[in-house]
Amino acid sequence: MPDWRALISGTTLQKCSMITDIIEPLQTQYKCCGVEFRNIQNMNASTLASLKKPSCGQWLNNQPAVSCGCDDVTDSNCIDVSQARELYGCDGIPENTVSKIYTKGCLNDVLDILDGSSGLTLYFIGYGLGLLMLTCFLLSVKLLLIGRQEIHKSKKRPRKKTELIQTPSNPLSI
Question: Whole-angstrom Cα distance, residue 162 to residue 150?
């Protein structure tokens, strides 16, 4: 069994990534955001520059998804965007769309799901079927284009003149 914790925690989240596709739908349900948050408030510039992963939920360029937004005033993990910028370096969040975000990472929730079921297997099957469908689509487009080329070529070929021959059984056969 793979080391899910190392695999997921070592990932920088970005669009069109399998780990992002696993985490993003869970954020609202589990009241979490990204993978892990790292407090950067007391870090100096050289330490910040040496970070291997983004500090804001491990989102690329510290720009969390809009699905990280929250409005639960009783949840201590739901903080103002300005506070998230200061504590975790979160950036690029349009305040007119999201005023607060969750600052609890989804890593433990994802690990609980993966340990309790074969959830990742379903994602792999889904991606495999999607890849198969894409391949079939591209193959059908290629065959369609080849067929059109053949029809176009056949229209350019000179045609043989045919004569009408009359026979007793079929008066107008070619």
Answer: 23
Reported as a single tens digit per residue, the pLDDT across 96-116 is 678 889 999 999 888 887 776
Residue 120 CB coordination number (10 Å):
17
The whole-angstrom distance between residue 95's C-alpha and the CA centroid of its chain comes to 24
Long-range contacts of 28-32, Cβ-Cβ distance < 8 Å, separation of 24 or more? 28/67, 30/106, 30/109, 31/70, 31/72, 31/75, 31/77, 31/78, 31/102, 31/104, 32/77, 32/102, 32/104, 32/105, 32/106, 32/109
What CA–CA distance (Å, rounded) separates 111 from 125? 19
Tokens of 73: 């005033």
Q: Position of tokens 């045919």?
A: 162
Segment 117-140 mean pLDDT: 77
pLDDT for the residue 173: 53
Which tokens hold the place of 71?
């409005």
Amino acid identity for residue 84 in this structure: A
Distance CA 148, CA 65 (A): 44
Helix/strand/coil for 46? helix
Domains of the chain: which residue ranges? Answer: 4-117
* DSSP category for residue 39: -
